[in-house]
Write a structure and sequence with these properties.
Radius of gyration: 14 Å
Number of strands: 9
Largest sheet: 9 strands, mixed
Strand content: over 45%
Low-confidence stretches: none
Distance between the termini: 17 Å
Number of helices: 3
Mean pLDDT: 93
Helix content: 10-25%
Shape: globular
């Protein structure tokens, strides 16, 4: 079954999509939307650089760790803990979070955002840490 037909049917090969993401990037993340509706979006993304404290104003996020390991915190840095494949990270809109350490690559997540996360919906606690454009770019599909 080709990719277009599988996507239309709601079937996605996460391993193949993860493998198709570039080996390096000039942004912190690169993603590919699997579904993109106002009520929710699903994406696969790879993290290339640690992400500084930021939050999303318009959506809750569920992050399933597909591959890789790192550290993550929500609310404040005192909650920093290691994560790895098979774990689910969840946070509500407005909750500051960060991924300070990439311990094993490739670091790939399956993300479910409710409602849909606009790629521009990233607010850095310190505006000097980045912009939506330096944070994420979509894979060329």
């Amino acid at each position: 079954m080709n990719d277009d037909k599988a996507s239309a049917m709601g079937r996605f090969d996460i391993a193949a999509i993860a493998a198709s993401l570039p080996a390096s990037a000039d942004t912190m993340l690169v993603d590919r939307y699997l579904t993109d509706r106002p009520s929710a979006s699903a994406r696969v993304f790879r993290v290339y650089k640690p992400t500084p404290p930021h939050y999303h104003a318009q959506c809750d996020e569920f992050l399933y760790v597909f591959s890789g390991r790192g550290t993550f915190w929500m609310g404040d840095a005192s909650t920093k803990a290691e994560f790895g494949p098979g774990q689910l990270l969840h946070f509500h809109r407005g909750i500051v979070h960060a991924l300070p350490d990439i311990l094993e690559e490739p670091l790939v997540f399956l993300s479910i955002d409710t409602p849909r996360r606009d790629p521009k919906d990233v607010i850095f606690v310190d505006p000097a840490d980045g912009t939506p454009e330096s944070f994420i770019r979509q894979s060329g599909y």
